[in-house]
């Protein structure tokens, strides 16, 4: 037996819980850097949070220039903003971009250096200043995960900093903050969360020695990650379409918030797999939103691994509420994959890599780059040699779902 569970010191999920933000921030420091973006700062919900924090905390600096996918230039500017007020606590209010930026700012503020010093797994040498993370999308789970994903202009693929030391200290997840998400952001972030659940649930289990839970961040699936993943898949499957269609559907918004939290808990330990690894070079090349890319790739990666995880896909069919009571396991797999195709189409995810401007000639190079993202690709339950990964990309490029 070998198990590990990591997470924020406190994780709170529910309508209205954003009211706790000023108190939690004030209890953790007296000079706060707020990280957010301009769109969010222009909204009453986020502006209200900043105003309430100003009433309780002596020094408040707001960095609102976060731009999608955390380009390194943003990190430099945000680190400078933190230094200007000698910040001793960070409050991140935003999507995965904002929270990932806040994580790396905390690392550099405590340990110096540049983001490049921390790329990879378990390279952050110790704790950082307290981070209070408040998501405004239902997707990445970044408010509780040990990962920060950055865009380095000198690299052909996005880069990750993974460490138990960057799990935010407090995660305050209020579905009301997601009500303003436009349908595209709801769709992209929501399908990202569904990928986290499914990639964790189908991740390859691996044998481990006693040092692995500290030396490695992602460990493959286990019973605990399965539990979180299935709870997440159930909620997201019943509510993602509804949240995209009607952003005012508060029940669907609540399901998506809790579902993305549960999916984050699953992949925080299991890790993601081929769709995420393949999206690293594709996202860097095409600048398509993260969720759109991983959602597009998911059905192709699953079809390539169906022999290894057919029983799991059949379980997912039942958990996602599909009518498989009288189906054989093989039929249930088909029902699940067909349903996934329909879900992706309904929420506006393009069906092929050609649709998002990927050149066919680039596929082998993307496969090679993805094969190098060991911490993710080793979770793929199918073959992971570059020929097999290229075959997934070829199918995704051409829309071949056989
Ligand atoms: N750290 C992790 O564990 C993890 C996991 C998966 C993905 N990621 C990363 O997270 C990023 C994607 O994050 P995301 O999907 O949350 O999107 P995002 O943070 O990039 O935001 C997308 C857009 O939505 C807007 N937005 C966010 N919340 C809004 C709201 N409530 N109302 C209106 N507009 C809103 C933002 O202003 C932005 O323009 C990528 O860089 C991805 O690589 C990180
Ligand atoms: Fe993701």
TrEMBL record:
Domain Alcohol dehydrogenase iron-type/glycerol dehydrogenase GldA: 8-175
CDD domains attached to this UniProt entry: Fe-ADH-like
Gene Ontology molecular function, alphabetical: alcohol dehydrogenase (NAD+) activity; metal ion binding
Pfam families: ADH_Fe_C (PF25137), Fe-ADH (PF00465)
Matching SUPFAM superfamilies: Dehydroquinate synthase-like
UniProt keyword list: NAD, Oxidoreductase
Stretches assigned to the Fe-containing alcohol dehydrogenase-like C-terminal domain: 222-397
InterPro entries assigned: ADH_Fe/GldA, ADH_Fe_C, ADH_Fe_CS, Alcohol_dehydrogenase_Fe
Assigned protein family: Belongs to the iron-containing alcohol dehydrogenase family.
Protein name as it appears in the record: Alcohol dehydrogenase
Protein source organism: Micromonospora wenchangensis
């Amino acid at each position: 037996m070998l198990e590990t569970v990591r997470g924020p010191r406190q994780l709170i999920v529910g309508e209205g819980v954003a009211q706790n933000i000023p108190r939690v921030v004030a209890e953790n420091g007296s000079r706060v850097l707020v990280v957010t973006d301009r769109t969010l700062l222009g909204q009453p919900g986020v502006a209200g949070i900043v105003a309430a924090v100003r009433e309780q905390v002596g020094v408040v600096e707001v960095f609102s220039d976060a731009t999608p996918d955390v380009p390194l230039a943003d990190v430099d500017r945000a680190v400078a903003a933190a230094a200007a007020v000698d910040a001793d606590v960070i409050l991140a209010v935003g999507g995965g971009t904002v929270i990932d930026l806040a994580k790396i700012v905390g690392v550099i503020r405590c340990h110096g250096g540049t983001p490049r010093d921390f790329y990879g797994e378990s390279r952050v040498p110790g704790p950082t200043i307290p981070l209070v993370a408040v998501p405004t999308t239902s997707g990445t789970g970044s408010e509780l995960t040990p990962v920060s994903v950055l865009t380095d202009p000198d690299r052909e693929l996005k880069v990750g900093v993974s460490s138990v030391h960057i799990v935010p200290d407090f995660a305050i997840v209020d579905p009301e903050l997601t009500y303003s998400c436009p349908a595209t952001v709801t769709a992209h972030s929501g399908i990202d969360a569904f990928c986290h659940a499914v990639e964790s649930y189908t991740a390859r289990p691996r044998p481990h020695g006693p040092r692995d839970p500290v030396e490695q961040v992602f460990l493959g699936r286990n019973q605990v990650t399965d539990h979180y993943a299935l709870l997440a898949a159930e909620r997201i499957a019943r509510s993602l379409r509804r949240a995209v269609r009607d952003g005012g559907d508060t029940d669907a918004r609540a399901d998506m918030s809790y579902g993305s939290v549960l999916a984050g808990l699953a992949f925080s330990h299991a890790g993601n797999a081929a769709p995420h690894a393949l999206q690293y070079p594709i996202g860097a090349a095409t600048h398509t939103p993260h969720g759109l890319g991983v959602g597009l790739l998911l059905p192709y990666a699953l079809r390539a691994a169906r022999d290894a995880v057919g029983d799991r896909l059949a379980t997912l069919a039942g958990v996602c509420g599909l009518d498989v009571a009288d189906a054989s396991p093989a039929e249930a797999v088909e029902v699940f994959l067909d349903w996934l195709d329909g879900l992706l189409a309904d929420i506006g995810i393009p069906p092929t890599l050609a649709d998002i401007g990927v050149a066919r000639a680039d596929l082998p190079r993307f496969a090679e780059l993805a094969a190098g993202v060991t911490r993710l690709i080793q979770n793929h339950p199918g073959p992971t040699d570059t020929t097999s990964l290229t075959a997934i990309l070829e199918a995704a490029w051409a829309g071949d779902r056989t």
